Amino acid sequence: HLTGDIHAVTAANNLLAAQMDARIFHELTQKDSALYDRLVPRIKGVRKFSSIQLRRLKRLGIEKTDPDSLTDEERTKFARLNIDTNNIFWNRVVDLNDRYLRKITIGQSPTEKGFTRQTSFDISVASEIMAILALGTGVEDIKERLASMVVALDKSGNPVTADDLGVTGALLVLLKDAFEPTLMQTLEGTPVLVHTGP
Q1: Which domain holds residue 137?
Q2: DSSP character for 139?
Q3: Tens digits of per-residue pLDDT, 69-106?
């Protein structure tokens, strides 16, 4: 990633945005049972929660670890984030200043079934992920900070986090090469460590 690690931040930021929009789309087009079955599929006849799903259950106050033991109400509560599309705080980012991307409409493809919304692009270095990368004290600290990023509010006004979307691990993988500073050489020929964005 060389200087700035901006590419890694851009990829991680936009993965989170894409996951959020995909989740909104699937919640709008699927019934509760189908959504739950896709989130916790049966593999060789057995359902199992992942560690990130167990964290979501804990945040919801559901103290169960067997996916088949959840009531219908608990399954709905677990499976539906109910993101309020008027209260989304997370934008896609790009590493250039393009004034025509400051306000755009997404979801115009026929495959999106008419579920459009207005959004915008920010510059990559303005991403919260860049701040986390710069301020994090270690991998575990960065993981916790990424997990707790609030991307939107649900229809009840509760925060929806990156962890709720299930992408914390994927964000870490995209950022792993950016954790360490890059050793560079100045014009004067002296070594310098460069880390994160400008």
Answers
A1: 5-194
A2: H
A3: 999 999 999 999 999 999 999 999 999 989 999 999 99
